[in-house]
Amino acid sequence: MEINDSFPEEQFFAISNSEVPWFPDITNFLAANIIPQGLTHQKKKCFFNDVKNYFWDDPFLFRRCANQVIRRCIIGSEISKLVEHCHSRPTGGHYSGTKTAHKILESGFYWPSLFKDSIRYVTLCDKCQRTGNICKCDEMPENYMLSCEIFNVWGIDFMGPFPSSFGNKYILAAVDYMSKWVEAQALPTNDARVVERFLKKLFSRFQTPRAIISDRGTHFCSTQFEKTLKK
């Protein structure tokens, strides 16, 4: 049969609009040992020095970076989606261009203009431009987690003075850090003597705790209070 050399126009259109990646010379050399034409001696030397960091695993090209981490090389059509995912999506956080670029590197991807494209995307992000820079006041407080068992650590403090009610002007409250159990008592004064009485009732019901946390007021930092804790 006679060979049909005609091609549909759709195939010509697909070929003419196909994207050319940034690494055809590297892939041609690694896959078929084809050296790019028209390179000067200096450019050819740089090309052979750079191609040592790449290896071809059909259909992807990988680069071995300076920290010996292997990352997949990305073509142009995938760059915008990847930067958007690492910056604007819920896992991104709308960080700066440099931090977004580091998130992309941690995800295992690479292309030569990675940092430049990430910074350009952040400058065009509408939400980032409206919000401005993220400062310390926007960060969540990082508090140490206290590992303890129930009724082992108590927080104690005075509230008041309040208007006198049956001769009482202050409220001494103690909160267990584990169960959030609250013990409170109305008292006429806020000295170390009433604190000692309150603690003796507390210890007799819930045993002696490992630690008591206070604001180090004079009614909590006294010799009488320390003797009670030693007992």
Question: N-to-C terminal Cα separation, in Å?
Answer: 108 Å
Detail the poorly predicted runs: none
Radius of gyration: 35 Å
Q: What percent of the residues sit in helical stretches (DSSP H or I)?
A: 25-40%
Which class do the helix and strand fractions yield?
alpha/beta
For the residues shown, what is the average pLDDT?
Answer: 81
CATH class of the largest domain: Mainly Alpha
Major β-sheet strand ordering: 1-2-3-4
Helix segment count?
A: 9
CATH topology of the largest domain: Endonuclease III, domain 1
**Number of separate structural domains:** 2
Form type: rod-shaped
- Tell me about the largest β-sheet: 4 strands, mixed
**Succession of helices and strands:** HHHEEEHHEHHEEEHEH
CATH architecture designation of the largest domain = Orthogonal Bundle
- The total strand number stands at 8
User: Strand share of the residues?
Assistant: 15-25%
Can you walk me through this structure?
- This protein has 9 helices and 8 strands.
- The chain has 231 residues and is of the alpha/beta class.
- It has 2 domains: 17-131, Endonuclease III, domain 1 (Orthogonal Bundle); 153-230, Ribonuclease H-like superfamily/Ribonuclease H (Nucleotidyltransferase, domain 5, 2-Layer Sandwich).
- Helix 4 (76-87) packs across helix 5 (97-107), helix 4 crosses helix 6 (114-124) and helix 5 crosses helix 6 (114-124).
- The model has no long low-confidence stretch (mean pLDDT 81).
